[in-house]
Protein backbone atom coordinates (compact mmCIF):
# COMPACT_ATOMS: atom_id res chain seq x y z
CA UNK A 1 0.00 0.00 0.00
CA UNK A 2 1.46 3.35 -0.98
CA UNK A 3 1.45 6.74 0.59
CA UNK A 4 -1.83 7.59 -1.13
CA UNK A 5 -3.75 6.32 1.88
CA UNK A 6 -1.74 8.49 4.30
CA UNK A 7 -2.51 12.22 4.39
CA UNK A 8 0.71 14.12 5.11
CA UNK A 9 0.73 16.13 8.33
CA UNK A 10 2.78 19.30 8.82
CA UNK A 11 2.89 20.47 12.44
CA UNK A 12 4.55 23.64 13.72
CA UNK A 13 6.08 23.29 17.18
CA UNK A 14 6.49 26.85 18.43
CA UNK A 15 8.34 25.72 21.57
CA UNK A 16 8.85 28.55 24.10
CA UNK A 17 8.00 31.39 21.74
CA UNK A 18 5.21 33.91 21.05
CA UNK A 19 3.08 35.89 23.46
CA UNK A 20 -0.69 35.68 23.01
CA UNK A 21 -0.83 38.69 20.69
CA UNK A 22 2.15 37.44 18.65
CA UNK A 23 0.57 33.99 18.42
CA UNK A 24 -2.72 35.40 17.13
CA UNK A 25 -0.89 37.58 14.60
CA UNK A 26 1.03 34.54 13.34
CA UNK A 27 -2.04 32.32 12.98
CA UNK A 28 -4.07 35.10 11.35
CA UNK A 29 -1.40 35.43 8.68
CA UNK A 30 -0.90 31.68 8.35
CA UNK A 31 -4.55 30.76 7.86
CA UNK A 32 -4.84 33.19 4.95
CA UNK A 33 -1.70 31.79 3.31
CA UNK A 34 -2.88 28.16 3.53
CA UNK A 35 -6.57 28.77 2.85
CA UNK A 36 -7.92 26.22 0.41
CA UNK A 37 -4.81 24.02 0.62
CA UNK A 38 -5.99 20.41 0.37
CA UNK A 39 -4.31 17.04 0.73
CA UNK A 40 -2.27 17.94 3.80
CA UNK A 41 -3.17 18.32 7.47
CA UNK A 42 -1.90 21.59 9.01
CA UNK A 43 -1.29 21.82 12.76
CA UNK A 44 0.14 24.53 15.05
CA UNK A 45 1.42 23.94 18.60
CA UNK A 46 1.61 27.19 20.60
CA UNK A 47 2.52 27.47 24.30
CA UNK A 48 -0.20 26.65 26.84
CA UNK A 49 -0.92 30.35 27.50
CA UNK A 50 -1.73 31.00 23.83
CA UNK A 51 -3.84 27.89 23.14
CA UNK A 52 -7.21 29.50 23.85
CA UNK A 53 -6.57 32.59 21.74
CA UNK A 54 -5.12 30.58 18.86
CA UNK A 55 -8.06 28.17 19.04
CA UNK A 56 -10.41 31.12 18.49
CA UNK A 57 -8.20 32.55 15.77
CA UNK A 58 -8.21 29.34 13.67
CA UNK A 59 -11.93 28.58 13.98
CA UNK A 60 -13.45 27.91 10.55
CA UNK A 61 -9.99 27.51 8.98
CA UNK A 62 -8.10 24.41 7.84
CA UNK A 63 -5.53 24.79 10.65
CA UNK A 64 -5.73 22.42 13.64
CA UNK A 65 -4.47 22.93 17.19
CA UNK A 66 -1.90 20.96 19.19
CA UNK A 67 -0.43 21.32 22.66
CA UNK A 68 3.27 20.75 23.33
CA UNK A 69 2.79 18.39 26.30
CA UNK A 70 0.14 16.92 28.59
CA UNK A 71 0.02 15.37 32.07
CA UNK A 72 -1.32 11.85 32.60
CA UNK A 73 -3.76 12.69 35.43
CA UNK A 74 -7.08 14.41 34.64
CA UNK A 75 -7.04 16.70 37.70
CA UNK A 76 -5.64 16.95 41.20
CA UNK A 77 -2.69 18.26 43.19
CA UNK A 78 -0.19 18.54 40.33
CA UNK A 79 0.95 22.16 40.42
CA UNK A 80 2.09 23.49 37.07
CA UNK A 81 0.64 20.66 34.98
CA UNK A 82 -2.07 20.72 32.27
CA UNK A 83 -4.45 17.79 31.71
CA UNK A 84 -5.95 16.17 28.63
CA UNK A 85 -9.54 17.30 29.45
CA UNK A 86 -8.23 20.89 29.70
CA UNK A 87 -6.56 20.59 26.29
CA UNK A 88 -9.76 19.20 24.75
CA UNK A 89 -11.72 22.00 26.42
CA UNK A 90 -9.53 24.62 24.75
CA UNK A 91 -9.93 23.05 21.31
CA UNK A 92 -6.83 20.85 20.84
CA UNK A 93 -6.91 18.03 18.32
CA UNK A 94 -3.32 16.89 18.81
CA UNK A 95 -0.68 16.83 21.52
CA UNK A 96 3.09 16.45 21.11
CA UNK A 97 4.46 13.85 23.52
CA UNK A 98 8.05 12.90 24.31
CA UNK A 99 9.80 15.65 22.36
CA UNK A 100 13.57 15.31 22.65
CA UNK A 101 13.70 18.57 24.63
CA UNK A 102 11.22 17.12 27.15
CA UNK A 103 13.42 14.02 27.40
CA UNK A 104 16.64 16.05 27.63
CA UNK A 105 15.65 18.83 30.05
CA UNK A 106 12.55 17.63 31.91
CA UNK A 107 13.13 13.97 32.68
CA UNK A 108 10.67 12.50 30.17
CA UNK A 109 11.10 8.72 29.84
CA UNK A 110 9.54 6.02 27.67
CA UNK A 111 7.33 5.18 30.67
CA UNK A 112 5.99 8.72 31.09
CA UNK A 113 5.56 9.02 27.31
CA UNK A 114 3.51 5.83 27.39
CA UNK A 115 1.31 7.08 30.25
CA UNK A 116 0.73 10.39 28.46
CA UNK A 117 -0.08 8.68 25.15
CA UNK A 118 -2.69 6.45 26.80
CA UNK A 119 -4.25 9.40 28.64
CA UNK A 120 -4.36 11.54 25.48
CA UNK A 121 -6.02 8.74 23.51
CA UNK A 122 -8.60 8.14 26.25
CA UNK A 123 -9.67 11.77 25.82
CA UNK A 124 -9.73 11.71 22.02
CA UNK A 125 -6.52 13.70 21.64
CA UNK A 126 -4.22 12.44 18.92
CA UNK A 127 -0.64 12.00 20.16
CA UNK A 128 2.36 13.04 18.06
CA UNK A 129 4.87 10.66 19.63
CA UNK A 130 8.49 11.81 19.22
CA UNK A 131 11.43 9.44 18.88
CA UNK A 132 15.04 10.02 17.89
CA UNK A 133 18.73 9.55 18.61
CA UNK A 134 21.46 11.90 19.84
CA UNK A 135 24.57 12.57 17.73
CA UNK A 136 26.82 10.31 19.82
CA UNK A 137 24.25 7.52 19.59
CA UNK A 138 24.17 7.81 15.80
CA UNK A 139 27.95 7.91 15.58
CA UNK A 140 28.29 4.79 17.72
CA UNK A 141 25.80 2.88 15.55
CA UNK A 142 22.97 2.87 18.10
CA UNK A 143 20.31 4.66 16.00
CA UNK A 144 18.12 1.59 15.47
CA UNK A 145 18.32 0.33 19.07
CA UNK A 146 17.42 3.80 20.45
CA UNK A 147 14.49 4.16 18.03
CA UNK A 148 13.29 0.63 18.85
CA UNK A 149 13.48 1.43 22.56
CA UNK A 150 11.51 4.70 22.13
CA UNK A 151 8.83 3.13 19.90
CA UNK A 152 8.40 -0.08 21.88
CA UNK A 153 8.36 1.72 25.24
CA UNK A 154 6.21 4.62 24.10
CA UNK A 155 3.53 2.49 22.42
CA UNK A 156 3.55 -0.38 24.94
CA UNK A 157 0.09 -1.79 25.67
CA UNK A 158 -1.65 0.10 22.85
CA UNK A 159 -4.20 -1.67 20.68
CA UNK A 160 -3.85 -1.51 16.90
CA UNK A 161 -6.82 0.90 16.80
CA UNK A 162 -5.19 3.16 19.37
CA UNK A 163 -1.96 3.26 17.41
CA UNK A 164 -3.85 4.33 14.28
CA UNK A 165 -4.78 7.55 16.13
CA UNK A 166 -1.10 8.31 16.76
CA UNK A 167 1.44 10.08 14.59
CA UNK A 168 5.10 9.13 15.04
CA UNK A 169 7.62 11.96 14.70
CA UNK A 170 11.22 10.94 13.99
CA UNK A 171 13.58 13.67 15.10
CA UNK A 172 17.29 13.02 14.83
CA UNK A 173 18.28 15.12 17.85
CA UNK A 174 21.55 16.09 16.17
CA UNK A 175 19.53 17.88 13.45
CA UNK A 176 17.23 19.93 15.70
CA UNK A 177 17.99 23.63 15.59
CA UNK A 178 21.54 22.89 14.43
CA UNK A 179 20.98 23.62 10.76
CA UNK A 180 22.08 20.04 10.04
CA UNK A 181 19.35 18.06 8.34
CA UNK A 182 19.33 14.34 7.84
CA UNK A 183 19.62 13.71 4.10
CA UNK A 184 16.36 12.52 2.52
CA UNK A 185 18.01 9.09 2.28
CA UNK A 186 18.93 9.07 5.99
CA UNK A 187 15.41 10.13 6.91
CA UNK A 188 13.85 7.48 4.67
CA UNK A 189 16.09 4.77 6.11
CA UNK A 190 14.94 5.45 9.68
CA UNK A 191 11.30 5.98 8.68
CA UNK A 192 11.35 2.63 6.91
CA UNK A 193 12.90 1.04 10.01
CA UNK A 194 10.09 2.55 12.14
CA UNK A 195 7.42 1.27 9.75
CA UNK A 196 8.94 -2.22 9.86
CA UNK A 197 8.99 -2.06 13.66
CA UNK A 198 5.28 -1.19 13.67
CA UNK A 199 4.72 -4.10 11.32
CA UNK A 200 6.49 -6.43 13.76
CA UNK A 201 4.84 -4.99 16.89
CA UNK A 202 1.34 -4.57 15.43
CA UNK A 203 0.48 -5.59 11.84
CA UNK A 204 1.01 -4.84 8.15
CA UNK A 205 -2.27 -2.97 8.05
CA UNK A 206 -1.41 -0.71 10.98
CA UNK A 207 2.13 -0.08 9.73
CA UNK A 208 0.88 0.96 6.31
CA UNK A 209 -1.55 3.50 7.78
CA UNK A 210 0.38 5.20 10.61
CA UNK A 211 1.91 8.52 9.60
CA UNK A 212 5.59 9.13 10.36
CA UNK A 213 6.75 12.75 10.38
CA UNK A 214 10.32 13.96 10.05
CA UNK A 215 11.55 16.68 12.42
CA UNK A 216 14.93 18.36 12.36
CA UNK A 217 15.76 21.66 10.64
CA UNK A 218 12.95 21.35 8.06
CA UNK A 219 12.83 24.45 5.85
CA UNK A 220 10.99 25.43 2.67
CA UNK A 221 14.17 24.59 0.71
CA UNK A 222 14.43 20.96 1.84
CA UNK A 223 10.77 20.10 2.51
CA UNK A 224 9.81 18.83 -0.96
CA UNK A 225 12.80 16.49 -1.20
CA UNK A 226 12.17 15.06 2.27
CA UNK A 227 8.43 14.64 1.62
CA UNK A 228 9.13 12.82 -1.63
CA UNK A 229 10.52 9.87 0.35
CA UNK A 230 8.04 6.95 0.40
CA UNK A 231 7.89 6.64 4.21
CA UNK A 232 8.06 10.34 5.15
CA UNK A 233 4.49 11.49 5.81
CA UNK A 234 5.01 15.07 6.87
CA UNK A 235 7.13 17.18 9.17
CA UNK A 236 7.34 18.43 12.73
CA UNK A 237 8.71 21.91 12.09
CA UNK A 238 10.50 24.03 14.71
CA UNK A 239 12.12 27.38 13.86
CA UNK A 240 10.58 27.67 10.39
CA UNK A 241 7.07 27.45 11.89
CA UNK A 242 7.58 30.77 13.71
CA UNK A 243 7.13 32.70 10.46
CA UNK A 244 3.86 32.25 8.61
CA UNK A 245 5.46 32.59 5.17
CA UNK A 246 8.10 29.87 5.66
CA UNK A 247 5.66 27.49 7.37
CA UNK A 248 3.05 27.97 4.62
CA UNK A 249 5.77 27.29 2.03
CA UNK A 250 6.66 23.99 3.74
CA UNK A 251 2.96 23.04 3.72
CA UNK A 252 2.74 23.80 -0.01
CA UNK A 253 5.99 21.96 -0.79
CA UNK A 254 4.52 18.83 0.79
CA UNK A 255 1.75 18.25 -1.69
What labels would you give this structure?
globular; alpha/beta; 255 residues; TIM Barrel; 8 strands; eight-stranded parallel beta sheet
Please work out how many helical segments DSSP would assign: 12
Percent of sequence in beta strands: 5-15%
CATH superfamily caption: Aldolase class I
Biggest β-sheet: strands ordered side by side in the sheet? 7-6-5-4-3-2-1-8
Could you list the spans in which at least 5 consecutive residues all have pLDDT below 50?
none
SSE order = EHEHEHEHHEHHHEHHEHEH
Distance between the termini: 18 Å
**Apparent shape:** globular
Overall average pLDDT: 96
If you consult CATH, what is the topology?
A: TIM Barrel
Structure notes:
This protein has helices at 20-33, 51-57, 84-89, 100-106, 110-122, 135-139, 143-154, 160-164, 184-201, 204-209, 220-227, 244-252; strands at 9-13, 41-45, 63-67, 94-97, 126-131, 167-170, 211-214, 234-237. The protein is α/β, with parallel strands linked by helices and 255 residues long. An eight-stranded parallel beta sheet has the order 7-6-5-4-3-2-1-8. The two termini are 18 Å apart. The protein has one domain (3-252): Aldolase class I (TIM Barrel), CATH 3.20.20. Helix content is 43%, strand content 15%. 45% of the residues are buried. The radius of gyration is 17 Å and the shape is globular.
Amino acid sequence: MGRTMRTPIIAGNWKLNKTVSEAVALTSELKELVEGTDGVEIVVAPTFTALHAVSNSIKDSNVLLAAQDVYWEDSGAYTGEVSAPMLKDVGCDYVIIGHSERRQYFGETNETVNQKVKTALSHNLKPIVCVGEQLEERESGQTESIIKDHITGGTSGLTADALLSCVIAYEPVWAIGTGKTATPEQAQEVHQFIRNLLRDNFSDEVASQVRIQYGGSVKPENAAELMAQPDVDGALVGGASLQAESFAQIVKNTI
